[in-house]
Predict the structure.
Amino acid sequence: MTQEKVFQMKLQTVYPLLVAKAEKKGRTRAEVDQVTCWLTGYSREKLASLVESQITYGDFFRNAPAPNPHRKEITGSVCGVRVETMDDPRMQEIRYLDKLVDELAKGKALEKVLRK
């Protein structure tokens, strides 16, 4: 899948997949919402409204009100690519969220996922 295709996907299509991944491993939607809000700066209410809207996944990250400065501490591989070395900043933001949800699904404590 090309990067541009990922950017054009609807958040309302992608976000439930992230939630399902976490729930399959015993985590909750509230935890996925919490890490998403931590990463992007959206409030829970705004996130909920965006998930119901027609916003694209790329625009969701492009319009993030307050990207967390600690997101740069997120390291590791997603789909065989190291998130800290990605060239495209928007794709890197998408992979940061993937990595956070992966860490949740693997049972990592929420405090560690949020780099506290």
Summary: The longest helix spans residues 89-105. The mean pLDDT is 94. Helices lie at 3-8, 11-24, 29-40, 44-52, 57-62, 89-105, 110-113.
